[in-house]
């Protein structure tokens, strides 16, 4: 169970810490909130955090091998994945470090980059070969997660909150199941294994912003998911309801944010990826996987509007209406890049068919219409601006 605010406020070590700090209620509230987030991430109450750190120091364990070192890097990763600004992340660490220092704990050096974070070099972004190595050291669940992230661009929040129903809906263009059959995992697995060219269509929301969007996943990814579902069924982690989490922890519940961070930490260690030289953080993360998806689409010539929509970025209402009402057009664009978002060679039947050619032609027609509409909107805005300027000038003249 997550710690509540009262759990933090009533903790012995936290109360001693807070007595030595500012008496302003707003500042105290900020301390409580930040320490609670950190304590919930690590899974230890403040007093346990201090006792653990003191025990490791007294045991003579080198700082780089202490748990606090992993806690700090993993916690930064979690906050970054949630989209926090570097300045906000710095604020969290200022409070957490102050808490540890109050008890004379020696802390790891951790720099938070205060740049916007958007200037990524190619050395910071994994390649398909890195993903291939990561899959080799992953279990069946983590493999399914990695291949879904690779081919869909979903962030950690979306992955953790996916339900089994999201998956069933993603394949509904290919199989028509009765309500009882949707929960018949052996039947679902049997039907989907027969389809080699299945491109899943995911209509979901960005966890961070609530923005509705559409993305897709590769046939390889879908096969990995059904392998995992079959494994769950055979290991007493069966799906009982449509709203059950698609991916679960060892305790058969939704994977926590720290749980997914630990997944990537484990992969980094097993694959020997180390840290990014430029950014001093773990090289292989869910965030860098999303960067790989983005750069792959751009390298295949997919236009920015389509990429933004598949990433769940906010776009203008005109473009949003086209993609929302016609996901097949967006799917046609995705199919141009899917072979570069898989580890094995992918066969997508529609790629060489007349239907696909029609989709591409229709997609180009719609691109032209969108450009035309955007141009007309810009012209109308310019005309309105001129009209307002003239009206203001007239009113100024009348006042004189």
UniProtKB/TrEMBL annotation:
One Gene Ontology molecular-function label: DNA binding
Secreted recorded as keyword: no
Domain Tyr recombinase residues, every copy: 118-335
UniProt keyword terms in alphabetical order: DNA integration, DNA recombination, DNA-binding
One of the GO biological process terms: DNA recombination
Top-level division of the source organism's lineage: Archaea
Full protein name: Integrase family protein
Organism: Methanobacterium formicicum (strain DSM 3637 / PP1)
